[in-house]
Amino acid sequence: MKLFEKGRIGNLEIKNRVVMAPMAVTIDPDGSLSERTVRYYEERAKGGVGMIITGYSSESEKYERSSCHKLDDFKKISRVNDLVQRAHAYGTKVCIQLGPGLGRIVYIDPNTPPYSASDVESYWTKGMKCIPLTKDDIKEIVRLIAFSASLAKRAGADAVELRTYGGYLADQFMSSLWNKRTDEYGGDLKGRMRFTLEMVEAIQNVCGKDFPLIIKYNPYHAIPGGRELPEGLEIAKMLEAAGVHALHLDKGCYDCWYNAITTVYQPDAHQIELAAAVKQVVNIPVIAQGKLQNPTVAEQVLAEGKTDFVGLGHQMIADPHWTNKVKAGKIQQIIPCIGCNQCLKYHFDGKFGNCSVNPMTCYEDIYKIVPTDCSKNLLVVGGGPGGMEAALIASERGHKVTLWEKEDQLGGLLLAAGAPDFKEPIKNYVKYLTRRIESSDVDVRLMEEATAEEILAGGFDQVIIATGARSLVPPVAGIDGENVYSSTDILLGNARVDSDHVVVVGGGLVGCETAVFLAQQGKDVTIVEMLADILATADHCDNNDQCLRKMISDSNVKIHAGTKVTAIHNDGIDIEKGGNKSSIPCGGVVLACGYKPNNELAKQLEDVIDIKIIGDSASPRKIIDAVQEGFHAGRLLD
Ligand SMILES: Cc1cc2nc3c(=O)[nH]c(=O)nc-3n(C[C@H](O)[C@H](O)[C@H](O)COP(=O)(O)OP(=O)(O)OC[C@H]3O[C@@H](n4cnc5c(N)ncnc54)[C@H](O)[C@@H]3O)c2cc1C
Ligand SMILES: Cc1cc2nc3c(=O)[nH]c(=O)nc-3n(C[C@H](O)[C@H](O)[C@H](O)COP(=O)(O)O)c2cc1C
Ligand code: SF4
Predict the structure, then answer these.
(1) From the CA of 293, which ligand is nearest?
(2) Active site (catalytic) residues
């Protein structure tokens, strides 16, 4: 396989073509690589990846506060060296990513105007203008970045990557959208590239021209006024001419963040044509990324010569062993990333990383799955993600596990969540969990609806209640009409709206996705949401939010926010907004008004037998909550 051929970046030989994309997943308050962070990377090295590019390190906090690591001091060398040694033990190379700041994207301090190329608006704090860096500031940043690179080299790192992508500070200099300077750091492309090229030269001066230097940048911004591909290709040529050894390519910027940091909604290989275009104009290797985790796709893009290396971001968080599993043909054992960006949200919330589908991520040495010395007879009620995870972990530890699921298949609400084509990764996750259950010792009984009596008669030592949630039905006149459907039934195909005009009541995540699902079938869809905006309750990462909003607008779904449904009729609904009453004609009404815990069973049993309530049956939330709670229920069962 091409994936397992050796590759080269400058004089650096890499054992295969798989590169872990840089991801700031761990937050260490002292800015240094903690043992926990190093251990997280080490697990990825153990999993066979050819090279790890670390999440970005900043060169200093003089110009902006940062939640990331800092490589600014001689004393940091030992931690980087620890990482290098432990990765090298597995034959994995280490590249340290250095980033000269976020500029207008700084998000951790809403009260201080960020520095940027020009006095453009801060991305997060609307109305706040950035402070243009002076020429002396620029020179200082260049000097500090070079110092960081020299520390990385002294620590034994195999390469450094300069982060100039994504609309961050260096990209703010490189793009005419954000660079309005009239001095030699602005103007034409040569002027706008000066900052980046000075950093390249300064790194070469301290590390030597042979020390592998990679640049991550975006040949195409995918927003009006942003970089178009012809300029992106010019940049590639300038970087090659400057002696850069490889180009790591991305697409988009914060203003269309889902292009840069993939969400569940992007198709496979959604950035690959940019890499292919850049490869046409340079002779140095390129690293492509952007949902390349399907092994067939990863192999294909290499075989077609569209890229020299496959960069994997999210998938390395979800499954550190992707590379070895692919090499061994154990593709069915890969834990699939579901594109939820909970990992990214953790970072933006200031928390240490974790993953919806892999509770061990960032807890490699903290959570231990220890064989039990006191095997219990465990019943898990409910075969959604929470119940399945609990059953798997408990069974792996040696408990005798029975799982009752009232439906004729496993998956719970994920079957509805993954029903639209644009949620394919959720379907893959259900298949993965189901395969694991089937090859485990868990005794699964489908179409087995648990009652308190049956459970008590079963003689179980402990019961895990993972019965999920029930849809909320608002007390509105006409809600029982034949033209009213539940979003779950619509998504699962258990019901069909015959009319071409549909109103979805509720504009949370489920309502919005159901609206797009229906609009993609050619229906005229309107969302009615009581709160001031749609997706107010979704609690998901900004890139997922941006993408779903774009899908809603692209599919011409109409939105009535701040609007209450007061009655449902055969031919439409009555609404009220700010005291004004009106109607929307429609033939079908789909309810997506939220969920309440399905906890009757739990209430009947709680004082009678040892039970643990997990996931949506404790409180309706998300996959990560169900999986984590299932994992811990199985892990801690004693
Ligand atoms: C359309 C939709 C889209 C969603 N999208 C996302 C998303 O993108 N990201 C995200 O994080 N979350 C999403 N969610 C939420 C997510 O699906 C839930 O949080 C998650 O499924 C909860 O898992 P669970 O195991 O707790 O419960 P469930 O998945 O609800 O599983 C409960 C299971 O228990 C079974 N059961 C109930 N009572 C009994 C009984 N008495 N006996 C036997 N079996 C019983 C049910 O049949 C069901 O299979 C979405 C939900 C919906 C509806
Ligand atoms: C949690 C998280 C943190 C990230 N941090 C960085 C970073 O520090 N530097 C960087 O260049 N890219 C960062 N990225 C972007 C990834 O490197 C990669 O470009 C992106 O996820 C697309 O690749 P994928 O589809 O394989 O995930 C981050 C992505 C995620 C999910
Ligand atoms: S948290 Fe979600 S998006 Fe991030 S790696 Fe895990 S499954 Fe993928």
Answers:
(1) 2
(2) 168
Secondary structure of 359-393 in HEC code, one letter for each residue: CCCCCCCCCCCCCCCCCCEEEEECCCHHHHHHHHH
Does residue 108 have a pLDDT over 90? no
Q: In what order do the strands lie in the sheet with 572-577?
A: 564-569, 572-577, 580-585
- Give me ligand 1 centre to Cα 553, in Å: 28
Output the CA–CA distances (angstroms, integers) from residue 106 to 50, 165, 483, in the order listed.
Answer: 32, 14, 48
* Mean local confidence (pLDDT), 546-554: 98
- Looking up tokens 């243009």, which residue turns up? 132
Pocket residue to mutate for ligand 1, from 345, 402, 404, 467, most atoms within 8 A of Cβ: 467
Q: Give the pLDDT confidence of 344-353 residue by residue, as tens digits.
A: 999 988 898 9
Substitution site in 263, 266, 338 for ligand 3 pocket (most atoms within 8 Å of beta carbon): 338
Find out whether the beta carbon of 343 lies less than 6 Å from any atom of ligand 3.
Answer: yes
List, in order of start, the domains of the chain with CATH numbers.
2-348 (3.20.20.70), 377-470+596-636 (3.40.50.720), 484-593 (3.50.50.60)
Count Cβ neighbours within 10 Å for each residue of 343-364 and write b for 16 or more, e otherwise. bbbbbeeeebbbbbbbbbbbbb
pLDDT (0 to 100) of residue 65: 83
Which ligand sits nearest to residue 535's alpha carbon?
Answer: 1
Residue nearest to atom 2 of ligand 3 (CA): 340
